Amino acid sequence: MTDMPFDDLSIVLDDDPKALDKPGEECGVVAVHVPHPVDVAALVHLGLFALQHRGQESCGICVAGGDEIRIEKDMGLVTEVFTEERLDKLRFALARTGIGHTRYSTTGSSLRFNAQPLTVRSNKGLLALAHNGNFTNARRMRDEMLGEGAVFQTTNDSEVMINLVARYAHLSLEDATARVMGELEGGFAVVVMDKRRILGLRDGNGVRPLVIGAFDDGGYVFASEPGALHVMGARFIRDVRPGELVVADDQGLHSRQVLPSTPTPCAFEWIYFARGDGVLDGAQVHGARLRMGEVLADEAPADADMVIGVPESGLAAALGYARRSGIPYDIGLYKSPYAGRSFIAPSPHLRDQKVRLKLAPTEAVVGKRIVLVDDSIVRGTTSGRIVQLLREAGASEVHFRVSSPPIRFPCYYGIDTAARQELAAAAMGVEAIRERIGADSLSFISEAGLSRAIGLAKTCLACFNGKYPAGMPDGDSEKESLDELAAR
Fold first, then answer.
1. Whether residues 214 and 362 fall in one domain
2. Catalytic, out of 27, 59, 62, 411
3. Which residues pair with 60 in a beta bridge?
4. 59 belongs to the catalytic site
5. Is residue 248 a contact partner of residue 197, using CB atoms and an 8 Å limit?
6. Are residues 252 and 104 in the same domain?
């Protein structure tokens, strides 16, 4: 996420994943088309609420029907932005189509004008787009378009795609979108709409997820995860295939395989990002996390009295570790449900209190040798503070186990993993990280063990091994920001 341009605005959100030293997922998307007018805004709103974990920075909804299209978006959580008054503005009698977006920025500043859905007027009418992921060639393409006189209103890479679609005036919306899919590179899942249909698509590697659902009384929905379908009252049909373009309109679903399919979905969906009740590309999320813990118990056993997990993302793997090892599982860390979206000034003292605001050790750890399971270590700062909390509470030993391999490389496909120089594992070995966080022992799951736990033929492991299946950004091996280009 790019820093805000003024120091006096550099506040810290405690529920920002980086506030607890976690990777940050870029977005959640949802799109709905129904054959008869209904409260589309309410449906999209429900879907976004189910995808709130994928982005807490900004959100938006665009709704269309007849000759009318309306959009509302702003900074904040779904419950903060979409009050009843604001939802009422999106409700009208002929509404049949809508898309929504919840955002965590990895390309483009954390500012209101970067909130999605993005809209553009074209010979195809008003188009709206919502995007999860990153286009690795967006900077070059944007530079070329600016040289040709194009005007951009935001600094996020999604605007490159919607402008490209609009430029192909001689093509239908479906054909223009298919052509643009072949020009864009990277990992992405996108939903597009006009006044009478929705389109859903994934990159050829299927790095970012997108699923299809159907309503019993007619109509379809695309969403980043199956949990959104459930809350909207739709049944799961299938995943959008890597490289596939699917159109939903009054005639049903229409599919085109636009790009060659070489599935390598992001492993972090199963490690951390996706909701535990989901199934993505045929692989269960909760089951995969349990198996990660089981693999960790086999690969890195510990002589301990208790297994605990870091809420919420480490709990399933901790349970798997306990079951396989035979060491009792308990709740050793309490996560406050009220810490929520507190704003804290970025003084060093208050930064040190973030973990204490969120987490508190329970009496179960007193005098115990603890196996502590978490999903990842990014910078290592938060991991060290959690270890310190447990020792202060009376834990006699803390053996840290991690259900992802060491993160050594940045992600270019929609995850904010921090710059490489900030990644603990990029500069230090396991023993040095152990000393830094103050644990008695430290082990990460192996890449092979992670792959077995997920159970798919291939997944994207680029942030662990530097092998990028969907390519890297043009001209640089580190992250590049469209904000720099916009500032020229």
1. no
2. 27
3. 73, 101
4. no
5. yes
6. yes
